[in-house]
Design goal:
- The protein is α/β, with parallel strands linked by helices.
- It has helices at about 30-55, 70-80, 95-100, 130-135, 140-160, 175-185, 195-200, 205-220, 235-250, and strands at about 60-65, 85-90, 120, 160-170, 225-230.
- The chain has a five-stranded parallel sheet, sandwiched between helices.
- α3 links the parallel β2 (about 85-90) and β3.
- The protein is globular and about 70 Å long.
- The structure holds adenosine monophosphate and magnesium ion.
């Protein structure tokens, strides 16, 4: 059994020192890893049903990564078999004119999970201190203030009963090259390929620096970041499934007691 907590950002993290291809102390390769993850996903399926049935807790999962980092892959494999009725995915793309006419959290707040729900943010409000910073879309003083605004927004959500887990899928520049090339080589993957991704790739170092600030300024005990080594997809999925199951287990969820006495009920 792996310890998911070792990937949590508890003190200062330097991304250059985290090996994106690392597999920590997991003994075994892809085959063992996938088998372990499949078991965890089974438990996730049961825990999600319990979360839904008890109807008291809310779980927000934030996924951030460089292009090709594997956000979609995580959603597909870690949640494979989990009842789609209890899980929502909110994808945050380039803001619309209406969204840009409001503050940056305006589009985010309505999509946080309700009681009994798990919501996965595929990108998030963190884009407003990442792409926005790297491309100078707002003045520096403005995005700098967003770190404390985001911390306070998340603290409010947690104080009101939401559990927040944030995952940065850490890939290497070489792995991104290979994945972009694979998209280019396969016509059935062209829809995922955007020439804009190449321009973003040119700014790799700026993004790594921006991510490092995000991780160091917005990982707190109540809303922690996890840096997930993600060059190996199976290990990435295993780490995330581990943290999710650990977190849901800790909630101590129970099926609710029925408001009626069902002991004498006969179905004719
Ligand atoms: P994809 O996830 O590949 O569909 O791409 C979504 C694009 O939307 C990415 O290039 C993001 O950087 C961009 N995006 C998401 N949120 C924002 C934001 N707040 N401001 C500017 N661009 C954003
Ligand atoms: Mg993309």
């Amino acid at each position: 059994m792996m310890d998911g907590e070792r990937f949590r950002v508890a003190t200062t993290v330097s991304l250059a020192e985290v090996d994106p291809a690392g597999t920590a102390d997991f003994s075994g390769g892809k085959e063992k890893g996938r088998a372990a993850q499949a078991k965890l996903t089974k438990r996730l399926e049961a825990l999600q049903e319990l979360l839904f049935a008890s109807g008291t807790e809310r779980l927000l999962i934030v996924l951030q990564a460089m292009d090709t980092g594997g956000k979609d892959g995580v959603i597909r494999s870690v949640f494979d078999g989990v009842n789609p009725q209890g899980v929502k995915v909110a994808s945050f793309k380039r803001p619309t004119d209406l969204e840009l006419a409001h503050d940056y959290l305006w589009r985010v707040h309505p999509r946080v999970p309700a009681k009994g729900e798990i919501t996965i943010f595929n990108r998030s409000h963190y884009e407003d201190v990442l792409v926005v910073r790297v491309h100078n879309l707002v003045p520096t003083a403005r995005w700098e203030r967003r770190f404390h605004q985001i911390n306070e927004f998340e603290e409010m959500l947690v104080e009101e009963g939401t559990t927040i887990l944030k995952f940065f899928l850490h890939i290497s520049r070489d792995e991104q090259k290979a994945r972009l090339q694979a998209r280019l080589d396969d016509p059935s993957k062209h829809w995922k390929f955007s020439l804009g991704d190449l321009a973003e790739r040119e700014r790799w170092d700026d993004y790594q620096a921006a991510y490092e600030d995000v991780l160091n300024q917005t990982s707190s005990p109540h809303a922690p970041w996890y840096v997930v080594p993600s060059d190996r997809k199976w290990f990435r999925d295993l780490v995330i499934a581990t943290v999710l199951v650990e977190t849901l287990d800790k909630m101590g969820l129970e099926y609710p007691t029925h408001p009626d006495d069902l002991s004498g009920v006969v179905i004719s």
